[in-house]
């Protein structure tokens, strides 16, 4: 029975998870090092953007089921959802946030507690987390010492929700649960069953870690294939969108969409965890990463060539978010491309981004202007489609015919 659950890290995964668990009538203590985030949540408001999250958080806080704090307190279970970025040229995973979380919860751990790592992690991170807990609490036993009989149960259950659909996917997605022992898995399933309608599938912690990395690498490799086709098609004067549509008519072919590069905080990061741990064996995964990372610069070069045709180029960049129909600009190739164009001073740069009301400083300070689609189509001579937002898909395509168009998303093509 779980009457009190603590969620460590109240970001894009931790906050929705905390709110959903609270909505099931369980007391939830959300812990974050960011005092501003804690204060915002305790007012029933949110500091991140995700559809309907504001409603669920407000109701959880108002009913007293969700409380945020900077200091961990005792609970039946602890879910750790902190960032795991990479550092340095070798893309080494940075586990410092997990280590800090372990040190923060160790003093309040009690016999019978469950600790679940949800952060996307390199293989072996859950065992490391358990090691840090054991170091801090020699009075308790952990699965690496006592297996099923340990005082504290430890597991990995990677988050798999798609930004923009987090609240639905938190409940409906299947969960992979990797306990450090059988009893660790069983206790975790019991916890997840309180709010997950999908299946909870049990494995060990290392396989669960690798499963998450594999999912995002699968996606990255397949997007890289599409991006590589877009470079080849440009050279061979073939419309890549038509090419993919035709190839996908084969019953066993399903090519993804090329784009300006891979953005977001997951797909462009997670494959490096595999490459870093097995560089010799991960040649395809590393090559895919490099193809996707190289795409923004290729787009910049295409735009420069197009702008060269005009005396006074006016370039409209359609979209700066990292993918369609969201306002998230973090790790966005579209934003990078636009910033690069502005920096290189190749002409007047306009941005159309229906999901934001102010440009980020980086663009505003470089003289970039945020305009409506109508205005952009009036004055631009080069139009660069960087995001397939619904507004661009719905636009009258005849107006594009008069422009030089670089369409990285197949919206006009
Ligand atoms: N993209 C393409 N072509 C495509 C599909 C995507 O260029 O055909 C680009 C998008 O424009 C975007 C990037 O890839 O820049 C990533 O977008 P996404 O929608 O594919 O994925 P994310 O990063 O928003 O979320 C992913 C999801 N993983 C998978 O679909 C395997 C999500 O389920 C994970 O929970 C999330 O990563 C995560 O947190 O790891």
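-> sequence recovered:
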């Amino acid at each position: 029975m779980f009457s009190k659950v603590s969620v460590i890290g109240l970001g894009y995964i931790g906050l929705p998870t905390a709110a959903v668990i609270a909505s099931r009538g369980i007391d939830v203590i959300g812990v974050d090092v960011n005092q501003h985030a804690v204060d915002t949540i305790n007012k029933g408001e949110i500091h991140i953007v995700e559809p309907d999250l504001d409603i669920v958080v407000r109701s959880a806080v108002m009913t007293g089921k969700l409380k945020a704090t900077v200091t961990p307190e005792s609970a039946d279970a602890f879910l750790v959802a902190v960032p795991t970025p990479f550092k340095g040229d070798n893309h080494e995973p940075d586990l410092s946030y997990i280590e800090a979380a372990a040190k923060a919860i160790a003093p309040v751990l009690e016999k019978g507690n469950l600790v679940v790592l949800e952060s996307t992690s390199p293989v072996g991170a859950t065992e490391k987390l358990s090691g840090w807990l054991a170091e801090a609490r020699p009075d308790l036993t952990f699965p690496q010492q006592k297996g099923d009989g340990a005082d504290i149960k430890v597991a990995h259950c990677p988050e798999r929700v798609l930004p923009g659909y987090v609240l639905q996917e938190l409940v409906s997605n299947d969960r992979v649960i990797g306990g450090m022992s059988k009893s660790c898995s069983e206790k975790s399933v019991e916890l997840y069953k309180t709010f997950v309608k999908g299946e909870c599938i049990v494995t060990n912690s290392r396989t669960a870690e690798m499963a998450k990395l594999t999912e995002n690498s699968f996606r990255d490799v397949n997007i890289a294939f599409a991006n590589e086709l877009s470079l080849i098609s440009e050279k061979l004067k073939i419309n890549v969108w038509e090419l993919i549509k035709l190839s996908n008519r084969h019953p066993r072919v399903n090519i993804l969409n090329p784009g300006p590069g891979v953005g977001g905080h997951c797909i462009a990061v997670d494959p490096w965890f595999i490459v870093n741990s097995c560089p010799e064996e991960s040649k395809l995964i590393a090559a895919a990463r490099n193809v996707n990372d190289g795409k923004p610069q290729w787009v910049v070069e295409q735009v420069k060539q197009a702008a060269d045709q005009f005396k006074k180029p006016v370039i409209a960049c359609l979209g700066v978010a990292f993918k369609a129909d969201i306002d998230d600009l973090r790790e966005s190739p579209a934003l990078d491309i636009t910033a690069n164009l502005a920096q290189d001073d190749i002409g007047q740069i306009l941005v159309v981004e229906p999901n934001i009301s102010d440009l980020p400083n980086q663009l505003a300070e470089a003289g970039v202007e945020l305009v409506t689609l109508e205005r952009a189509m009036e004055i631009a001579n080069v139009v660069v489609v960087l995001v397939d937002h619904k507004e661009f898909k719905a636009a009258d395509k005849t107006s594009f015919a008069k422009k030089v168009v670089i369409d990285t998303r197949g919206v006009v093509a």
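The chain has two domains: 4-204, 220-407.
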